Amino acid sequence: MNEKINILPVPTWNRMGVNWAETRAELPKKSLPKGKKTPYANFIPQGIQRIEELPSEVAKISTGMGSNYDDYILDNADKTCFIHVNTDVKEPLVIIEQIDPSSPASRTHFGIVAERDSHLTIVQILKGDAIDGAAMSLTQILAKPGSFVRLIQIQLLGAQSRSWEAVGARVEGGAKVEVVRAVLGGRVAACGSLIELVGPKSEYTLSAAYFGHEAQYLDFNDTAVHLGTESTSDMYTSGVLADKSSKILRGTIDFRSGAVRSVGHVNENVLLLDPTARNRTAPLILCGEEQVEGQHAATLGRFDEKQLYYLCSRGLTPIQAKRLMIEARFMPVLDLLPDEDLRREILEDIERRLDHHENNPG
Amino acid sequence: MKDFNHEKTHVSEVDRSIYDIKDKVDSSFEVNSGLTSDIVSRISQEKNDPEWMRLFRLKALETYHKTPLPIWGPSLDGLNIEDIVTYVRPKTDMRTNWSDVPDYIKNTFERLGIPDAERKSLAGVGAQYDSEVVYHSIREEVAAQGVVYTDMESALTGPYAEMVRKHFMKLVPPSDHKFAALHGAVWSGGSFVYVPPGASVEIPLQSYFRLNAPGAGQFEHTLIIVDEGAYLHFIEGCSAPKYNVANLHAGCVELYVGKNARLRYSTIENWSKNMFNLNTKRAVVEEGGTIEWVSGSFGSHISYLYPMSILKGKNSRMEFTGITFAGEGQNLDTGAKVLHSAPNTTSHITTKSISRDGGVSTFRSAITVTPQASGSKSSVSCESLMLDSISRSDTIPVMDIQCDEVDIGHEAKIGRISESAIFYLMSRGLSEENARAMIVGGFAEPIAKELPLEYAVEMNNLIHLEMVGSIG
């Protein structure tokens, strides 16, 4: 697929290389046959209804990955999972996508309609590995007034696979969408979210963490569009870059005319472990409304020497202290997970990757 | 209490008219509008270029034709190079005494306060009118230090010809972008400064660029070399009267800051609101050197302006302090670029922007830290103020960090004037309009204090002028 994905909402100098994702994030479209759109058949918690067809108002919700990608998944998905909730669903819907040599590619289309005042948590987990493995997903969410949708995306793929995760949401009055994202594996990992806060007092939070290592390429494009009055967005991304990994984060707050008294924040914190890692960040604020407050902040650097010294003075070895500081980057995300086993699994995954990093420096 | 309305009327009637006074166009020579190799050759011939420069211009023209317009930034739809007259020679040669400058040109610069500033607070002055420098001078005691301050044409053929050739468009090659190529093809005027090792020019030099002819372009070239351990403060000012046709400014500034040298480059840009300001400024800084940019952007219809600093030597540093005020009919895309390419380099960028009456203000930046720049630090802070909901203010920064031993901080804020602050000031007896003007003045204050005094006064006047009628 030669079309561009994760396009920066407003372009800047081409030579900075952030206007869209690098070519290595292009989709392997030609090698994959058209999907059969098989409906998801596994366990669905009580209170969630499957629906056969996604309402057109949901199917046309755009994602941060861009229309090229969205159209591709809409046309070629292997699996579909369209759900409807109109109550407070206590149990999370957990969907695990396993990549392996016998099933090296997946294209999944999720559609969620959260009715007025309903509550829902969805956990999407990507696991496994295969040569040229490819995991693709498209998640479209309609959050009606007063509803709450928490989408948790955990990517634990091996080093040979690639992943693309696109999210689009339309958030109506008083509704809230929360995206929680942890990206740990994959040769290439691309995520693109576009959240439209259309209703008054609609809310969006993004809590994301990543661990870039080996020759991994991570590409994120997260945008909050404020249309409704008093809407709020808060996007926080924390990450670690090691070895020859490379990452681009585009984080955009877009205040449209009429979004009076809206507030948006983008924050990023990057820990750089090796001189060969590369970090690119483009945090945009676009503003067409006077009565708003927008803010972004980014800090990048190595370990805080004072923190390290303190931890070592409390009895930790330098390696233990550094591990603790790396794991701490994931805590804002891990704290939001609904399941202790999942939390433990991710921590163990981080441990394994850190072991590998320490045993194979650079 | 002051009669605020009266004060603003005064500003409106006097200060804006200073910039908008049009002289009758009375050139001794001008090329046809458009851009062809014949036109470029004719400019070269008129200017008695050395042969290498003639060839340079023609090659730059080829590059111009091959280079596409930028895909980013404000629309350039209103700019048609076929309508632009790229060279207008005023009816005078360059003079070193104001009394020798023709009255109508001298009067224009008198109104802009240049000769007065020269007498009071400058070590030297260059004044360009349309395509040529009409006046240049330097104080004897500064010249006695070995400081060279002259027009580019004289430098190109004088004792510093080799130095000029060695540095001319090496920092900003014509291949850099389409308007750098255009500049390479049709440049005219500008200043050359050389500050020898250890020399310190305690009071500033200033070049002022005035574009009078409608539909014309100004393409001055400024080349400054501050040698090892030397210091210079250079001030650049520019203005033009407003016409109904597009004018174009595509100047180029190249600054070479030597080892442990320091250069402060201050600009107040107040082009008329029919101007396309596509200016390129770049500095390279050697070990321990410092470049300081102070920039105020108030004029122009469209602006693309991002001074770039290449921190080439270890421990070199840059500071950028800028303010942009975009009003009706203006789309000002401004910011800064930094390339950290040596260890322990430092950059600080502080900007403020204000948008009102449908104006569009964009802050755009690029911070690149190469793998060689370990121990480097960078901080970027930009604040934007929106004064109404028909304006726009965008912030588009990019950071590219290719080194782990760095300390990078970035913060941006966008917001409006606090209602409670207005309420407080009104409760102390100010009108709402006056309260708003005061808050905007306070917002701009950290930048104003970095400007030379007379420019800080000019900036404050401009802010007051821009605030006229800001309520309702």
UniProtKB/TrEMBL annotation, chain A:
GO terms for biological process: iron-sulfur cluster assembly. InterPro entries: Fe-S_cluster_assembly_SufBD (IPR055346), SUF_FeS_clus_asmbl_SufBD_core (IPR000825), SUF_FeS_clus_asmbl_SufBD_sf (IPR037284). Residues 105-328 form the SUF system FeS cluster assembly SufBD core domain. Pfam families: SUFBD_core (PF01458). It comes from the Bacteria. PANTHER family: PROTEIN ABCI7, CHLOROPLASTIC. This is SUF system FeS cluster assembly SufBD core domain-containing protein.
Automatic annotation (TrEMBL), chain B:
Coiled coil: none annotated. InterPro entries: Fe-S_cluster_assembly_SufBD, SUF_FeS_clus_asmbl_SufB, SUF_FeS_clus_asmbl_SufBD_core, SUF_FeS_clus_asmbl_SufBD_sf. GO terms for biological process: iron-sulfur cluster assembly. Pfam families: SUFBD_core. It comes from the Bacteria. Residues 209-443 form the SUF system FeS cluster assembly SufBD core domain. Belongs to the iron-sulfur cluster assembly SufBD family. This is Fe-S cluster assembly protein SufB. It comes from Lacrimispora algidixylanolytica.
